[in-house]
Amino acid sequence: RILDRPYVAMIGGNSIRSYDAGEVRQLFDQRYDIDLTLLPIDKVDNVDLGRYTTLVMVDGSYSDLNTAGQNQIKNWVKNGGIIVASKRALRYLNRIGLSRFEFSKMSERDSLGALPYKDIREVKGAQEIGGAIFKTKIDVTNPLFYGYSTDYLPVFRNSEAFMMISYKPFANPMVYTDSPLLSGYISKENLRNLKNTSAAGVYNFGKGKVIGFTDNLNFRAFWY
Questions:
Q1: What does DSSP assign to residue 222?
Q2: Is the distance from CB of 39 to CB of 65 less than 8 angstroms?
Q3: Which of 119, 147, 151, 209 is the most buried (most CB within 10 A)?
């Protein structure tokens, strides 16, 4: 089938992580040779989103996106737009009612019990996932993974967000395995919470979709 040309925009500006946004811009410009429009977050309410097929929302709080901008995005998705979001952007989309990504409510640091104050720096550092490689199981029949031939995919992870498996059976195209660590460091507590959690989720909203990833897949542009 003939594919429709994608017209992609990404929200940028204050309250959005500039590193992640820059890595996406580099990916489109240097690797894909696809035009990418950068939308200032304080101008979203005045932009005609109808000219775009896809909106990228990287890590950030999106606190500078006003109510008019939120409604503009929700109406655009309802009419068939697709959002690709990652990390904290997923929680923001939950708050405005565009998705229902569920995260583990228990913090790993809270599960360690009573510890001496002198160890605070070492303990906090040990619970951070600064960059390691993990094994996921993917659904190769899902359009999101068109072109992949094996159902196991290694991914690079640098966050401590653990997304629960969706109750919708076809909304879990990418799941961490029962023994996910391939290379690098992760604490025992975080490893227990990472097992069998979701790495990517899909939610329908009207005629559109929200595709959410727990991690920045373009970290430092070394993982193709």
A1: -
A2: no
A3: 209
Q: What is the residue-wise DSSP string for 144-189?
A: GGTT--SSEEEEEE-----BPPPSSTTS-SEEEEEEEEEES---HH
Q: Show the 3-state SS of 61-95.
A: CCCCCCHHHHHHHHHHHHCCCEEEEECHHHHHHHH
pLDDT in tens, 95-118: 999 999 998 865 444 555 677 877
Distance CA 117, CA 115 (A): 6
Q: Which helix (H) or strand (E) is 97 found in, with range? A: none
- At 117, give phi and psi (nearest 5°): -60, -30
Phi, psi of 178 (to 5 degrees): -75, -20
- Give the residue carrying structure tokens 């559109």: 208
Is 197 in contact with 163 (CB distance < 8 Å)?
Answer: yes
Q: How far apart are CA 67 and CA 47, in angstroms?
A: 14
- pTM value is 0.88
Tokens describing residue 101: 């990504």
CA distance 152 to 155: 10
* CA–CA separation, 10 and 19 (whole Å): 13
